[in-house]
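Hi all, long-time lurker, first post. I run a small reading group and we've been trying to get comfortable going from sequence to structure in the token notation. Rather than ask abstract questions, I figured I'd post a concrete chain and ask someone more experienced to write out its structure so we can walk through it together at our next meeting. Sequence below, copied exactly:
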Amino acid sequence: MVRTWSYAVFAVLAANAAMGYDAVRCSTGNKCPKDLPCCSQYGECGVGAYCLGGCDPLSSNSIDSCVPAPTCKSADYKLTNLDGITDKTKYLGDASKSDWVVDGTPLAYQNQVLLTMAPKTVGTVMASSHYVWYGKISATMKTSRGAGVVSAFILLSDVKDEIDFEFIGVDLKTAQTNYYFQGITNYNNGQNISVSSDTFNDFHTYTIDWTPESITWSVDGKVGRVKKKSETWNSTANRFDYPQTPARVQLSIWPGGLASNLEGTIAWSGGLIDWNGQDIKSPGYYYSTVREVNVECYEPPANASKPGSNSYIYTDPSGQESAVEITDKSTVLKSLLGTGLNMSADFPSISGSINPTEIANIPGLNGAGPNGPGYQPGGPAPNNPAKSANPTAFNQGGSGSQNGATKPEGERILKGSLFAGLVAVVGMMIL
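-- Answer (accepted) --
Happy to help. Here is the structure in token form:
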């Protein structure tokens, strides 16, 4: 099975390369410098959004460079419109104002949310603003369809603990499951679950029930797989290689079948994507459909340090369950120049000595700030002409109508997203 988060890493690297942005890379063996202290989910250093959801404390300049993460919130998210969904260029960490943070282009259609992937893009990912530290999470959704098109519903922690449901567009009767510990690649952990009917045309509810002792994957209430923590003991490292740290819920659509990808990735995803196929001709993009996400938070581990209730932080570089503490520290930056070490940092005046457009503060964009190319308050995200498209102008089928939905006159076809122009560069995933 292909690593969902690792694909996003290379997508953002490709974006920066395409725009000529000389990114500072980071890993556990190559920590970020003090002036760009936060290592984003994509393995690049910066401030602002780099320090929010997905910020890796183990690869950042210091373990407290990342902004504290909002604690779990039990909720039933009825995704009937785009309310509560915020573009990453406008999110400062206040989970009370945003339920989801998005890269790419979500659209509202018939009381559902579509995650779209237009030609020359790498799709859309929608991540929860609140983290989950054990819980029961369900997504009621339809997958995408077509060779090379991949849909995903996963839990991903900042230290790369991961629990997956993934779906390839040429196999609409199978849900692929997997788990990872701190980003360590082990594809022997994968296992498939059969689905009762077509995953593209029919809604199904996929559930991850995650406790300190086990992970249970279910489809439509029927258990398909169970993995016990006790089965993951690593005697060499003297630890359990088991997902055990607070994670965001992520739903996404992405292109496994790009011609620039490795042959193994293309084969796994069902072959090369047909950007002129029948499924994409009418709406102008591939899509997966999300109707509802349910989150039931479980109690944190009994031995967890809990001096507060507002946020999760890491206290030691092991990155394991014992390193997580629940605190009352704020999760909100004043601006996209802030970090976990300086939450109140703000943009200087345009006449000041610092040019905010040259500061890496939104992963995947070449800088950001007032009057800069990376941030436009109140306007569409940069490199994202799709943001101006009519969000209701969508037809799920071919010409005419489907399920009573008639194609509106003058429908505008989406042609871009935050990841526009990456096709020639993206694709260094490893099976």
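A couple of things your group might point at:
The chain has a mean pLDDT of 83.
Residues 4-18 form the longest helix (15 residues).
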